[in-house]
Automatic annotation (TrEMBL):
Tyr recombinase domain: residues covered: 98-301
Any GO MF annotation of the entry: DNA binding
GO terms for biological process, alphabetical: chromosome segregation; DNA integration; DNA recombination
Xref: Gene3D superfamilies: Intergrase catalytic core
Keyword Cell cycle on entry: no
Keywords for this protein: Chromosome partition, DNA integration, DNA recombination
Pfam families the record matches: Phage_integrase (PF00589)
The UniProt record lists the keyword Ribonucleoprotein: no
UniProt name for this protein: Integrase
Length: 314
């Protein structure tokens, strides 16, 4: 069987299970192009290793490719299309995992101010789009993909509720928004309606000047411009710089800090935060809670109050 045909059969199999399988399918097709038009049994282990390794240092992409191909070859072996897997037997030591950047309130304000740097005559709404998007990400903790998938009809701004349809794990959820964020969304959607609406009310909420959906890669590029204009960066030796996705982590950490300061029962509220963020379980939410000096300080104060002996008066 030709490698390409087997890959397409496997992709159809994953789709039949109800999975979107978009990024994995794209990676598998890229793998087939790299291997060439050959039979499945003709694949050479050294060619597979070259595809997985790519160029440059070993990163998390190495493991991602390895796991995608691992599932593909388990499918192929289980159905008798190949007898053995050509994947390497050992996984190299990976660099430390990426640590989210937790923005301070001052840095968030600087990011919002720096959206003015995106002003352009060709797309006059561009600064307002980024400004409102950043507010939404921080105010709701939404994933960037969820925000970019919102349509105008998904935003019930009268009730202050957003319907997230393109959520992870195929889940739809309702996301309430506060009054201040609601006003900002009200203002933006009035301006957005002056742009083309190619699908009517089903048109994308955040759009290009022609009314089309914004692409994640483009948003990433524009955010880097905004971040540089706001003079926000890690130390020069860092492997990566603050990302737009880190705003989601920031929203979670700031919410926990606010609960600590208000004297709330954080452990009881964590499951509610997990639901709000669209996490499957509380463990996923706990991974978002990077320990910052501010969070550690508030937790320490809580522990001190708990551990301090009760003072009894005669």
């Amino acid at each position: 069987m030709r490698l390409h045909d087997l890959a397409e059969a496997y992709i159809d199999y994953e789709h039949a299970l109800g999975l979107r399988f978009r990024s994995d399918a794209k990676e598998l097709r890229s793998y087939c192009r790299a291997m060439g038009d050959i039979a499945t049994e003709e694949v050479k282990p050294e060619a597979v290793l070259a595809f997985i390794a790519g160029r440059g240092p070993v990163t998390a992409r190495w493991v991602q490719k390895y796991r995608i191909l691992g599932r593909f070859y388990r499918y192929a072996i289980g159905r008798g299309f190949v007898s053995t897997s050509p994947l390497p037997n050992q996984i190299p030591k990976l660099p430390p995992p990426l640590i989210p950047y937790i923005y301070s309130v001052d840095e968030l304000q600087r990011l919002l101010t720096a959206t003015n740097s995106l002003q352009t005559p060709q797309s006059p709404l561009q600064p307002a789009t980024m400004y409102t998007l950043l507010l939404l990400l921080y105010g709701t903790g939404m994933r960037i993909g969820e925000a970019l998938s919102l349509t105008i009809q998904d935003a019930d701004l009268q009730s202050r509720v957003l319907t997230v349809r393109n959520a992870k794990f195929f889940k739809m959820r309702l996301v309430p928004v506060g009054p201040r964020l609601g006003l900002a969304l009200d203002d933006y959607v009035l301006r957005r309606r002056r742009l083309p609406l190619p699908a009517g009310e089903a048109s994308t909420f955040f759009a290009t000047h022609r009314g089309h959906r914004l692409q994640y890669t483009w948003i990433g590029q524009q955010f880097r411009r905004v971040r540089k204009a706001a003079n926000i960066s890690r130390e020069s030796s860092a492997r990566y710089q603050p990302r737009i996705h880190d705003i989601r982590h920031t929203a979670a950490v700031h919410r926990i800090i606010a609960w600590y300061r208000a004297g709330a029962d954080v452990q009881r509220l964590l499951p509610q935060l997990a639901t709000y963020l669209g996490h499957v379980d509380i463990g996923s939410t706990q991974q978002y809670l990077s320990i910052t000096a501010e969070l550690l300080h508030e937790a320490s104060l809580r522990f001190e109050r708990y551990a301090q002996p009760e003072v009894r008066h005669a």
